[in-house]
Design brief:
Layout: H1 2-28, H2 35-66, E1 73-79, E2 90-96, E3 102-109, E4 114-122, E5 125-126, H3 132-143
Length: 144
Amino acid sequence: MELALAIAALVVALLLAVQVYRLSRRLRAVPGGGVYEGLQRIDEDLAAAERSLARLEPAVQSLAARMPGAIRHTAVVAYDAYGNQAGHLSRSIALLNEQGDGLVISLLVGRDETRFFTKMIEDGAGLEPLSPEEQNAVDRAWDG
């Protein structure tokens, strides 16, 4: 009887030893040697991340406030302003923000001279009459 009890105690001790071994292997995977220390490090890292996000928040809000005015839509149209004299070197460039406001820059290149024009755009339309090429640049920028 005592032998059976000793064997049972030995089996229970072996089972407990296996469980302790498995648990110790799991605990070794936690950096710093302990669960509490590992959780404390994670908590400190999260607090540092929250502080960093709080410092970035004003900059992000400032950028978000300025985004509607930033140039978001562009297009370039190449053409020959003087009919086969300059090899399609003339350009109309549309630069528009999110609301379709901005400007068109036109460079008219001829054999002997280059002319430069700018025209204001509001809500995707010129405040002064646009040439077909300028209107094409605005339409392409606004559509695409």
